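ok, trying the design again with the full structure, not the truncated one.
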């Protein structure tokens, strides 16, 4: 049985790999926090050069909205794989999934609500 820290580290490793392989660029930094039945993942500096360029060259609302729409669509398509990844690591099924990206800071937050609190051993 894993510790809470080992679960959080495995989630960060898997989410970073997903960003690199599926989205084309991995985060500069990743932190995962298991808070009861919530898993919160914060990824920093995830925008590609093309996405940063898009956001800065178009009018602010248009670039932001376009980027968020495309990223949201890509994440929704990959949702089953992400949920399976979290279930494999935590041993608990995902009840719901929420995400957002900041076009200003390049941060992404992903929240997984789990069906129950994952079992882990104390350190």
């Amino acid at each position: 049985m894993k510790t809470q820290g080992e679960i959080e580290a495995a989630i960060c490793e898997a989410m970073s790999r997903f960003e690199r392989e599926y989205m084309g660029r991995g985060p500069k930094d990743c932190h995962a926090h298991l808070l009861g039945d919530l898993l919160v993942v914060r990824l920093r500096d995830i925008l590609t050069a093309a996405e940063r360029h898009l956001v800065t060259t178009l009018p602010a609302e248009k670039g932001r909205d376009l980027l968020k729409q495309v990223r949201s669509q890509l994440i929704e398509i990959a949702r089953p794989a992400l949920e399976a990844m979290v279930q494999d690591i935590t041993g608990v099924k995902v009840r719901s999934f929420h995400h957002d990206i900041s076009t200003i800071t390049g941060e992404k937050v992903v929240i997984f609500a789990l069906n129950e609190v994952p079992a882990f051993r104390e350190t």
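Keeping the full-length input from now on. The first helix runs from residue 4 to 23.
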